[in-house]
Design goal:
Catalyzes the isomerization of sedoheptulose 7-phosphate in D-glycero-D-manno-heptose 7-phosphate. This is Phosphoheptose isomerase. A five-stranded parallel β-sheet has the order 2-1-3-4-5, with helices on both faces. It has a single domain, classed as Rossmann fold, CATH 3.40.50. With about 200 residues, it is of the alpha/beta class. β1, α2 and β2 form a beta-alpha-beta unit. It has six helices and five strands; from the N terminus they run αβαβααβαββα. α1 packs parallel to α6 and α3 crosses α4.
């Protein structure tokens, strides 16, 4: 296979994945946007977590909310945080309690009833995202999972699952960031009438 074929195949796979997301997950995506909007409208906060590339996606989406999603959409900052961002907390918790607790410990510190946890896990089997979801539910937080494949062990744990119907990590992550951007668009429309 030549390099153009490799590139072309990935682009076509990505397009097909997004078509499948459009055909099968639109109601869940809109529902996630409405949940997140209501949480923020009520004065609560959104916490994000994920590992590896999903960690970066969690930080990316949180930044879009704190700063702004679309250039020119001037609005107040929204309370969102990525639990993957503080290296001191991550390393201290890993050392003292184990990596499985790095997000749940922060949920216990920052979360409160009415807040929202969005956990990203391409496999659905990330033990630290599972622990964070359990901790959030104990606190009375709302929970949404961005997953892939068959949803793994996280499937059914959160209030709402958005499961990308693919096994390839790259396609799942591309779709998760697209859905994160849609979430930001819905929030800006619902809270500020900014499109």
């Amino acid at each position: 296979m030549d390099l153009k074929e490799i590139a072309s195949k990935q682009i076509l796979d990505s397009i097909q994945t997004k078509k499948d997301v459009l055909d099968t997950l639109l109601p869940e995506i809109v529902q996630a946007g409405q949940i997140a909007s209501k949480v923020l409208e009520n004065g609560n906060m959104i916490l994000f977590c994920g590992n590896g590339g999903s960690s970066c996606d969690a930080s990316h989406i949180a930044a879009e909310l704190v700063v702004r999603y679309k250039s020119g959409n001037e609005r107040r900052a929204l309370p969102a945080i990525s639990l993957s961002s503080d290296s001191a907390v991550l390393t201290a918790c890993s050392n003292d309690y184990g990596y499985e607790e790095v997000f749940s410990r922060q949920v216990q510190a920052f979360g409160k009833p009415g807040d929202l946890l969005i956990g990203l896990s391409t496999s659905g089997n990330s033990k630290n995202v599972i622990s964070a979801t359990e901790a959030a539910k104990k606190l009375g937080m709302k929970t949404i999972s961005f997953l892939g494949g068959d949803g793994g062990k996280l499937k059914g744990m959160a209030d709402l699952d958005i499961i990308i119907p693919r096994k390839e990590t790259a396609r799942i992550q591309e779709s998760h960031i697209l859905i994160g951007h849609i979430l930001c668009s819905i929030i800006e429309q619902e809270l500020f009438q900014l499109s």
